[in-house]
Amino acid sequence: MFAWIALLALSLGACTQEKEAPAPSSSLPVVSVMEIVPRDVPVDFEYVARTQSSHLVNIQARVSGFLDRRLYTEGAAVKEGQVLFQMDPKPFQVQLTQAEAALSKQKAAFETARQNLARTKPLTEQNALSQKDLDDATGQFQSTAASVEQAKAQVEAARLDLSYTTISSPVTGISSSAVQADGTYISPQNSLLTTVAVLSPVWVNFNLSENEMQKFRDQVAQGLLLTPTSMEYEVEIVLVDGSVFPHAGRMTFAEPSYDPQTGTFLVRISVPNPQGLLRPNQYVRARLKGAVRPKAILVPQRAVQQGAKGHFVWTVGADDKAEQRPVVVGSWHGDDWFIFEGLQSGERVAVDGTLTLQPGMAVSAKPLGQPASTGAGPTTDSQ
Fold it and tell me: Which residues contact 376 (CB under 8 A, 6 or more apart)?
């Protein structure tokens, strides 16, 4: 009887131990992997830029006098040749009349000298008059001829001064406010009246730092970047709301030297602006298109991690074991990251499920985007 009870107790203990002992897990961590396939990738470069009028003209008075009236609407578009201001022309009309009268007087003196010389020449040849008389007549003729030319120049100067009282715009553009009010006496000290800014084409300027330029040159030298021939980038202008300006621009000027104060390099883009949507001193973004990264390697940003020694990714070898691989990263491209060094074509990079990986750990790799297999069917709880 006691032997039977002891045997029953040993059996119950063994069942309890077998029930409580955890079953060893044979499942491997599942990671999503992508195969590295190098390809040529078009890349854009985007910079904060500022617009500038391609031709900003200061409208200034060229003569001194009273400003009669302003003949344009401030801030409105003006056309080439449109009259903007009118100065009092009466004093200049008087000066022109005086100059024309002086010219008539000199012409009369010249005619008299010409006739006198014509009479003196034959008499001198007949020895009726001395050589001195001929020289005097010749000198008087030449002097009055020069006086006529001088009087003509004074008439032209007076006519120009009169024309300067009507002040027109030399270009088509947008006008600014009037600096001087009607009735103001205009002199060289306050001759600025307004400005007119040409809106088409408009310039878009941005700056590159010395470090950016050096990095750009290094990537071109290493074959990591191919640029358009003669740097002929197509340039998109991105407005403040994120929309793209309908007209593309082109690079027309690069400053030959760096700004000593900022250490930056000025680049200018010319953009057609027929509707005048872009205005001077407006902040936009310039997007340069046309460069290509040949045989580039792209991996999703979430696959790249950073440790104490820099950036790294997890790769999965042919034996389905994880390896930590240091990489040299470039710029972002959408949701991906360019990898300049550290990966080769055909290698598999772990993208998802990398948080618990250790070097040499065996994993279950599935292609990126493929749903994981559940393995077992659904389970039910028992009471």
Answer: none
